[in-house]
Amino acid sequence: MSDTRPLEEEAYDMSGARLALTLCVTKAREGSEADLDALEHMFQQLGFESTMKRDPTAQQFQEEMEKFQQAIDARKDFVSCAFVVLMAHGLEGHLKAEDEQMVELEDLFRVLNNKNCQALRAKPKVYIVQACRGEQRDPGERVGGDNTVMVTEKLQTIPTHTDMLYIYSTVEGYLSYRNDRKGSGFIQTLVDVFLERKEPILDLLTEVTRRMAEAEVVQEGQPKKVNPEIQSTLRKQLYLQ
Predict the structure, then answer these.
(1) What is the largest CA-CA distance in the chain?
(2) Less packed terminus of the chain by CB within 10 Å, N or C?
(3) Tell me: the pLDDT tens digits for 180-197?
(4) Residues whose CB is less than 8 angstroms from the CB of residue 193 and which lie 6 or more positions away in sequence, other chains included
(5) Domains contained in the chain, CATH given
(6) Which stretches make up the Caspase family p20 domain (predicted)?
(7) Rounded Cα distance, 105 and 94, in Å
(8) Which of these, 82, 16, 86, lies nearest to 50 by C-alpha position?
(9) So which residues are the catalytic ones?
């Protein structure tokens, strides 16, 4: 039987600490607790040290991110990766904090990049954003490789923004949906797939997108479609299981 395990230079080393931070505005966002419960279960099952903060103000969004970065850089053990989950009402590029002030996503994203978080240099940093990105609604439409390998150990420098993965609950300009009791279809589907399957994370996200594309959300009596958007600068395969 052939060995199908990825080569060391093709996959991130996930043998060290896995850290997660969830910042969630629950105010006027019924169903958020169901998402928090699902995420807590997922992080526990996948071996993450998870921290959750409910209803952060705009200042606290930034402060909690910076505290997370400082705690990571202060660790003496090997850190494999970091996940950050951001859940709130939003518009493109912004989240609405508990105090109704807007937070720029880019300000939160840059905290863990290769320039600002030394312990996570060349390691995967995953942002999951469950928020609207505009006001548009999607009714749906009817329908009838590169083999280059880069070895981190041989690199003298690394780009500032590599090893990042941004997972948005919807595409730019569109609404994101959440059930008042069951939580958001995006978070619930993502948790199901991440716990069920063992492929690289980008393959898992393709499955999340497929399942969400098949589902329908009924809003104001009309069926709507929604699908996540993935932006990646990962250099290697990222396996969570």
Answers:
(1) 58
(2) N
(3) 889 999 999 999 999 999
(4) 204, 207, 208, 211
(5) 15-135+149-232 (3.40.50.1460)
(6) 29-136
(7) 5
(8) 82
(9) 89, 132
